[in-house]
UniProtKB/TrEMBL annotation:
Superkingdom: Eukaryota
Family stated for the protein in its record: Belongs to the dynein heavy chain family.
Key words of the record: ATP-binding, Cell projection, Cilium, Coiled coil, Cytoplasm, Cytoskeleton, Dynein, Microtubule, Motor protein, Nucleotide-binding
Domain Dynein heavy chain ATP-binding dynein motor region: 1-138
Signal peptide start-end: none
Residue span, Dynein heavy chain region D6 P-loop domain: 379-443
GO molecular function terms attached to this record: ATP binding; dynein intermediate chain binding; dynein light intermediate chain binding; minus-end-directed microtubule motor activity
Keyword Nucleotide-binding (UniProt): yes
Subcellular location: Cytoplasm, Cytoskeleton, Cilium axoneme
Pfam family, one: Dynein_heavy
Gene Ontology cellular component terms for the protein in this record: axoneme; dynein complex; microtubule
Keyword match Coiled coil: yes
Origin species: Patagioenas fasciata monilis
Protein name as it appears in the record: Dynein heavy chain ATP-binding dynein motor region domain-containing protein
Length: 448
């Protein structure tokens, strides 16, 4: 914390005449002044004196905490009766606690005020009996409520896989800012996508099938929503992260193998005994060979060099069948071997891996559907287009506008190119559009 803030944090004010002053320079201080400081540090540490002077609020959301929030949202949509019942139970249990506390306080007050023989105080005895009887009734109701709550929780748990998947996806989105600071996704926007995915998922009377439909729709909706805002070079990274973390959550991948694929540790100083493998690739093979699942891989490559050479030097090795018993390895294990042998083909291999595990719809090349983006917008959620040179979405917007009866000709589209002196024009257009429900296109010149 900057030393210049010490006077503010300590509220070191002095009164001079009618005014309140602060600091060495005696700056005038308004009694309603509020200071809010925010940090982006994941786990900040504050000195004890700062903790004593300030109110610290932790907005950090955890995977488990978000999962519980999203579970409540799913159940509220799918089984509103359950969520209402659970809310009522929580309320009634709190009321029971308050009632018991009031009875105890009342009894203690009467006992402390009573003098002499307690049994001669009729009101005290009656109050004691009432308290005892009410406490027994409340205890019975609490027992009943706990049984009902347990039944509700069992029913709610059926929907946990959907909430668990959604929570996982949100934290993948949060980490995208490490790739590029422009990738910022708010929990509020994510919640909108999440709720729309619930609405659009295929219905089913079978609860397990319904949860599977919910999980699949949530995953795909979040993917399409996110990929729309990513640069082309980063889309496969995001897709791979989704695939790997979903499979890890389902315990369908070996964490050690996944760690090898992502970090690619290799033995330094080793020389490749075959001409079709680089020294670094052979170093990776030696590390792999130390794992039980890849035992004798290095010896097999040396012993069957001709067969492995044909595989490694093929045009599309990710589509070829691995030699001998290695063809029966899992998809992730094959990726690990290919990572050592043909790192140049990993982009295609990862794409094939995602298609196998998640479905072909995740890897199909498709342009952004403007109408889909429009459906997700609202009067308070505008669309932003970050354009490459030569790209102009105006024609697509005009086509969409004609379908919805928004055109420049009928005055329902206001197109303003922002520049010097155009602020007034833009503000006037926004005011008109806000009142009459028009569209406003604000074009910002490059470099601004």
């Amino acid at each position: 914390m900057e030393p210049v803030l010490d006077h503010l944090l300590g509220r070191n004010t002095i009164k001079k005449g009618r005014y309140i002053k602060i600091g060495d320079k005696e700056v005038e201080y308004h009694p309603r002044f509020r200071l809010i400081l925010h940090t982006k540090y994941f786990n900040p540490h504050y000195k004890p004196e700062v903790q004593a002077q300030c109110t610290l609020i932790n907005f950090l959301v955890t995977r488990e905490g978000l999962e519980d929030q999203l579970l409540a949202a799913v159940v509220a949509k799918e089984r509103p009766d359950l969520e209402t019942l659970k809310a009522n139970l929580t309320k009634s249990q709190n009321e029971f606690k308050i009632k018991l506390k009031e009875l105890e306080d009342s009894l203690l007050a009467r006992l402390s005020a009573a003098g002499g023989e307690f049994l001669e105080d009729t009101a005290l005895v009656e109050n004691l009996e009432t308290t005892k009887r009410t406490a027994i009734e409340i205890e019975e109701k609490v027992k009943e409520a706990k049984v009902t709550e347990a039944q509700i929780n069992v029913a709610r748990e059926n929907y946990r896989p959907a909430a668990e998947r959604a929570s996982l996806l949100y934290f993948i989105l949060s980490d995208l800012s490490k790739i590029n600071p422009i990738y910022q996704f708010s929990l509020k926007a994510f919640s909108v996508v999440f709720e729309k995915a619930i609405q659009h998922s295929a219905p089913s009377d079978d609860i397990q099938q319904r949860v599977m439909n919910l999980t699949d729709e949530i995953t795909y909706s979040v993917y399409t929503y996110t990929a729309r805002g990513l640069f082309e070079a980063d889309k496969l990274i995001f897709l791979a992260q989704v695939a790997f973390q979903v499979l890890t959550l389902k315990k369908e991948v070996n964490p050690v193998e996944l760690d090898f694929l992502l970090r690619f540790p290799c033995k330094a100083g080793v020389t490749s005994p075959v001409d079709f493998l680089q020294h670094q690739g052979w170093g990776g093979i030696k590390v792999l060979s130390e794992m039980e699942e890849f035992k004798n891989l290095d010896n097999d490559i040396e012993g069957s060099a001709k067969r492995w050479k044909k595989f490694v030097e093929s045009e599309v090795p990710e589509k070829e069948v691995f030699p001998k018993e290695w063809k029966s390895k899992t998809a992730l294990q094959k990726l690990c071997m290919l990572r050592c042998m043909r790192p140049d083909r990993m982009t295609y291999a990862i794409r094939d891996f995602v298609e196998e595990k998640m479905g072909s719809k995740y890897v199909e090349g498709r342009s952004v559907e403007l109408f889909k983006a429009y459906e997700e917008s609202s009067p308070s959620t505008p669309l932003f287009f970050i354009l490459s040179p030569g790209v102009d979405p105006l024609k697509d917007l005009e086509v969409l506008g004609k379908k919805l009866n928004f055109t420049i000709e009928n005055g329902k589209i206001h197109n303003v190119s922002l520049g010097q002196g155009q602020e007034v024009v833009a503000e006037r257009a926004l005011e008109t559009a806000a009142l009459q429900g028009h569209w406003v296109i604000l074009q910002v010149p490059s470099g601004r």
